Amino acid sequence: MDEAAFLAALPGLAFHAVLAFARLGAAVMVLPGLGEEEVPANIRIGLGLALVVVLLPVVAPGLPAAPDSAAEAVRVILLEVLVGLWLGGLARLIMMAMAVAGQMIALLLGLAQAMVPDPALGGLGTAPGRLLSLAAVVVVLSTGLYAIPLRALVESYALLPVGDPFPAGAGAEAFAAAAAESLALSLRLAAPFVVAAIVINVALGLLARIAPQVQVYFVAIPGQVLLGLALLGAVMPPLLGAFADAARAAFLDLPGLR
Known about the structure:
Layout: H1 3-28, H2 41-59, H3 70-109, E1 115-117, E2 124-126, H4 127-143, H5 147-159, H6 168-189, H7 191-210, H8 216-252
Antiparallel strand pairs: 1-2
Helix pairs in contact: 1-2, 1-3, 3-4, 3-6, 3-8, 4-8, 7-8
């Protein structure tokens, strides 16, 4: 390609780069592992630009030419941002299962009053919730699971071509299904602590009936916390393994990989 041909093709290449960044960059802002709140926004934007450089030759054949109308160009770009946020949000929901499970565990352990900043849930959260949120990020990054949503993002160009209307109904259904699966996963992860809390409370109730003179409340709180922390330490390895398996299955079920 000579200089004149390159200059003539440059506007089209720039428009393709903007389209790719709109979808890829929007997704990177919320993708598991890469789009964590702890990662500064400028680094996430840099990751999005790096993905554009790497993936633009792959997705460019399916990208449309630059439209003549500025309004049409803005519409297409906004649609791409919406698609990127939707795909990234579907993957993000599975990560929130760990944070929600941590909130449940904190409530069952009697640690719900110890609040710490938790960007995963927004505002303040409990210490166990924050612990499990960070553990989920470590699992996703250390096992390479973050690559599956990236592959789904590339494959999404065949499922949702650039410029096509966004399927709002199907998209909302997919998001609702992912949210339900995330909540179900959080309940499964917190199940051992639910069972332990039931056993402990039944035992304390029997103790209160058998020995009314015992101050059950003052005995229960430190014992519940100690037993809960011991149970958390014991089940943490299988809990992380169960999350990794569930996250892999959920990521492989993302649109474009089904």
